[in-house]
Specification:
The chain is of the alpha/beta class and about 300 residues long. It has eight helices and 15 strands. Strands 1, 2, 3, 4, 5 and 11 form a six-stranded mixed β-sheet that branches.
């Protein structure tokens, strides 16, 4: 395994690369772009890279389905870090291009969702075609295949382009969440401001099936920060659920919720416990702290010994 190599969704000049470079350890690693999210994660599985940074969620469109599906399938991987990056787009063009010259535009599909109102207002007749990434769109503009690309302003110099418009976004405070993924190993120590990710599968589709799963979290006071259903590929009606829970697997409320899921689900994939990028401490509801779980366990032991409180 190349312990000194990190990969990311490329090519150079993507928001993913910008997010990766915010991590202190990135300064001492060889950073290698991958052509897609599956390629980046497969590089980790094969040992070609020690870790991969990939987008998993954004505040406008929600979960990144390709990443969610790749983490749910194939050889298991684990999340060790997350990065939150504010997103604003620039319209990158070849030097000398005016707004009236822009007839064709490109960018990642997620970018289209975040700039569509700007497009409708400023380039209502422009034809959009999706690119593998925003930086790849910039490269195709450089090659003359499109008139403009929506990408990070920082990508302009990389591809010999200029920003025709900047700070483009339909939603204020748009943010994309990225995760640093590696091969399974020990989780980092709890910080008090952590997140736990997992994927779990329904045993069967019946009324209340999802409610039964959610109750494993609810009765233990575990807040679900995100939950999304994804098809398993095994036919209509077959779904798994990707979720982020507040807290660390070493927290009793979280570990017991995961054990509860393991009892009733045919499959549960633990994706890791890791520090929250926003460093916001978990909210612990009354009756769900580790100390209260220990006291309840001690009481049960006394009951078994005939010393329980009546």
């Amino acid at each position: 395994m190349s312990a000194n190599r990190y990969t990311y969704l490329g090519p150079e000049g993507t928001f993913t690369e910008a997010a990766l470079r915010t991590l202190p350890e990135a300064a001492t690693r060889e950073l290698v772009p991958s052509v897609s999210v599956p390629a980046a994660l497969d590089a980790v599985r094969s040992g070609e890279a020690a870790a991969a940074l990939v987008p998993i969620e954004n505040s406008v469109e929600g979960g990144i389905n390709q990443t969610l599906d790749e983490l749910a399938q194939g050889e298991p991987l684990m999340i060790y870090r997350e990065v939150l990056l504010p997103i604003a787009f620039a319209l990158l063009v070849r030097p000398g291009t005016t707004l009236q010259d822009v007839k064709t535009v490109t960018g990642h599909p997620a970018a289209q969702v975040q700039v569509r109102h700007w497009l409708a207002d400023h380039l209502p007749d422009a034809h959009w075609e999706s690119a593998a990434s925003n930086a790849d769109g910039a490269r195709m503009v450089q090659e003359g295949r499109f008139d403009g690309a929506f990408a990070g302003e920082f990508a302009a110099a990389q591809y010999g382009l200029v920003p025709l418009a900047t700070e483009i976004h339909d939603a204020a405070n748009a943010t994309t969440r990225f995760v640093l993924v590696g091969r399974p190993g020990r989780t980092s120590a709890p910080t008090g401001a952590d997140k736990t990710s997992a994927v779990f599968w329904l045993a069967e589709d019946h009324p209340g099936a999802l409610l039964e799963l959610l109750q494993e979290f609810a009765v233990r006071g575990v807040n679900l920060m995100r939950i999304e259903s994804r098809p398993t590929g095994e036919g209509l009606g077959n779904y798994c659920f990707s979720a982020d829970a507040e807290g660390h697997i070493t927290d009793r409320r979280v570990s017991e919720a995961l054990m509860g899921l393991h009892r009733i689900c045919p499959k549960v994939r633990f994706l890791g416990s890791y520090p929250r990028a926003d460093a916001q401490a978990a909210t612990v509801r009354p009756g769900t702290s580790d100390a209260e779980f220990v006291r309840a366990s001690d009481w049960l032991s006394r009951c078994l010994d005939g010393r329980g409180e009546q």
